[in-house]
Amino acid sequence: MVAPKISFCTTVMNRLHHIQKTLPQNIVDNNDYTNIEWVILDYNSNDGLEEWYSANANVLGENVKYFRTNEPSHYKRSHSRNMAFRLSTGDILVNLDADNYAGRSFARYISKMFINHPDSYLAASENISADVSGKICVSRNDFFAIGGYDETIESYGFEDFDLKERLEKYGVKRLTFENSEFLKAISHSVHERIKNEYLYKNLEKLFIERISPMKARLIFITKDGKYESAEIVDCQMRYEGLHVKPLNQKFRFVIVENSIEKGNFSTGILHNSIEIINQKTIHNIIYFYSQLQSKPLILKKSDNKDYAANINGFGNGKILNAFEPISSPIAI
């Protein structure tokens, strides 16, 4: 059987310091597999990624395919990954985050698994670090059949969980890997995770109001004079008799239904809130809130049998090939 072509797809927005470490190592670690490509989508970075690629293109080799889009103002995980996957040409598509190492002979391992299990997809075990939870390998046909990553999921997290769940609804079986060689990633701060998010890039101030021992209100004031607020409840604080009811931590905190408010900011909105000024705390709250925003949608989708997403298309935008003049973008 002919070895399938494998496309490692990486989206990058201001992560030059990661990709310049991982990409060269990943190429070396998988030089024992020839039917391969490395698709790099520069998602409007401004940290010198384009210049770095231009200076190193010959060293990186012809299997690296660099593309750039100048359109995004902030990072959208689902949309960016869909763009990269659409730009790929492989039979098997692999999402590989910029901070992830593929691992020695990972491409050869993927090929073997898909040849032996053609009706499956491959992902890191859920019992490992979240740093590699997005490392998913899927056949091109299956990925396009379910409509790619769901672009209605814009906040941090859950887009990979949703993709796996919809693949399984479509009838694709899950295979997992736990080999430590394939689970390596560059550790980084919460700030690194959220610095390109819309809310962080546009945040002016952050306030919190304590409503009760189990409920608080977050108020985000943005640079355009708008605000967004939401009530967060700690479901762990439910009692059964004299005992706290234990809950799965994954479902402990939720946004109170219909509590999200958006509009023009005025000081009357603040009530008895206090301003959060510690930067690390701000990073953690944005990271926390971003994940909570996706949770209701994911739980709702889990209850139905629909596997399709993005029925009007996905991964659309204007793309520049490496070294192409800015006046000649490709619409995809």
Keywords:
six-stranded antiparallel β-sheet; single chain; 30% helix; 332 residues; Spore Coat Polysaccharide Biosynthesis Protein SpsA, Chain A; alpha+beta
Description:
It is a single chain. The protein has 332 residues and is an alpha+beta fold. It folds into two domains: 200 residues, Alpha-Beta Complex (Spore Coat Polysaccharide Biosynthesis Protein SpsA, Chain A); 111 residues, no CATH class. Helix content is 30%, strand content 26%. It starts with 5 loop residues before the first strand and ends with a strand. 36% of the residues are buried.
Question: Could you give a short description of this structure?
Answer:
This protein is an alpha+beta fold and 332 residues long. The chain is built from 9 helices and 17 strands. Helix content is 30%, strand content 26%.
Please describe the topology of this protein.
Elements: E1 6-12, H1 16-29, E2 36-43, H2 49-60, E3 64-69, H3 77-87, E4 92-95, H4 106-116, E5 120-124, E6 136-139, H5 140-145, H6 159-169, E7 173-177, H7 190-194, H8 198-202, E8 203-212, E9 215-222, E10 226-234, E11 239-240, E12 243-244, E13 253-255, E14 261-264, E15 274-276, H9 279-302, E16 318-321, E17 330-331
Parallel strand pairs: 1-2, 1-4, 2-3, 5-7
Antiparallel strand pairs: 3-16, 4-6, 5-6, 8-9, 8-15, 9-10, 10-13, 10-14, 11-12, 16-17
Gap between N and C termini, in Å? 32 Å
Percent of residues in helices: 25-40%
Kindly give the count of domains: 2
Number of helices: 9
Could you state the order of secondary-structure elements as H and E?
EHEHEHEHEEHHEHHEEEEEEEEHEE
Q: How would you characterize the largest beta sheet?
A: 9 strands, mixed
Helix/strand-derived category reads: alpha+beta
CATH names the topology of the largest domain as: Spore Coat Polysaccharide Biosynthesis Protein SpsA, Chain A
- For this structure, the quaternary state is single chain
The order of strands across the largest sheet is 7-5-6-4-1-2-3-16-17
CATH architecture of the largest domain: Alpha-Beta Complex
CATH class of the largest domain: Alpha Beta
